[in-house]
Amino acid sequence: MEKCPIDLAGSTPNSPMDRVVLLLQQILQQYRENEFKSIGILANFYLPSSTIADETVKDTAETAVQALKIFDSAADSVLKEFAIQQGFDLSKSKKYQSRMKEGYLRVFYPVIVSHAIWLDREDGGKAVKNLGNIFRSTVLGAAGYIIFDSNIDDKDHSPAEIMLSLLLIQEHDRLLQQSFKFNSADYEILNRFKQLYLAAEIKEKRSRFLESPYTKERPEDCGYKAVHGYLPFALLLQKSGKQGQIEGYMHLFYECGAVLQIMDDLLDLEEDITNGHYSYPTLGFDKELPGRSPEELAALIRSDMKHMCQLQYECKRLIESSRDRCTRLKADLMLHFVDTLEARLDMFFFDAMS
After folding, report:
1. What's the rounded Cα separation, in Å, for the pair 333 and 112?
2. How far is residue 78's CA from residue 70's CA, in Å, rounded to a whole number?
3. What is the tens place of the pLDDT at every residue in 86-99?
4. In degrees to the nearest 10, what's the CA dihedral of 72, 109, 63, 346?
5. Measuring CA to CA, which residue among 145, 175, 173 is closest to residue 161?
6. Rounded CA gap, 83 and 93, in Å?
């Protein structure tokens, strides 16, 4: 059986960031040599090894565990070092600790890997030089937006954390500008994406304790809140002279992002209902909202097998639509991502309905 070519045990870089850059370099090398004939290391960033049927892929499971630890360590280091520079100790933030514990940032590791490979394919050479910035900007942006969103939702919000989240987002933008050497068209894309994100947030916040900001017919709207994660791909398309594909990719990202969001919303039902955010999984339970506690309503939603099957069906429909878009866009790398997302979806609902 072919061994995974990524060797982490023999490397002794000096810092968590050194280790994560070395890991990304090795993943790039694996891609260049094998072109992901199996979904390999990318799948292992996304799935428990027990869910993977391919024996070649299973052989990389131990490496994947090491890789996740390297990503987690570097992400924690980047965020805490930046926060300390602003006079803030992130280790005392309950919201940050909670998100790290539930593996929120791990959703973004496959995105970082996909972006690095895509950048290497479209603009060879620059990827290796910018791997550190790619990782830092993604982690800072993901943490910044989730800390911002969590505090805006929470009655016990922290003004200091809100200010820190804005600084994290600003640093995310700065690193992207540095990596892509922004021109006026790039700033227009950045501003457009910020407006899309804020419009989704405004719609959600205006609906709090009143109604869901979503409709059953448009589950893809759930993907708008992750728009910040799509920005590097849009910038790369523009820099590669493929501006005409941006809209197609945006729809693809919305669909994949919605699947991730719906799974996350099912996990966070109690917290969301407490904060008056009636997410997509609460649709159809409007009459139950006033008379039940968040815990009772969450349990009712999760125990309704017909409802859960419908949610799974909608997610599957989004998966199929995104797979079709990948074919039309000739987005082979994104197709790998969609395949791993579907496997994760299947495992999620299998566990949820067992």
Report:
1. 13
2. 12
3. 999 998 888 888 88
4. 120
5. 145
6. 11
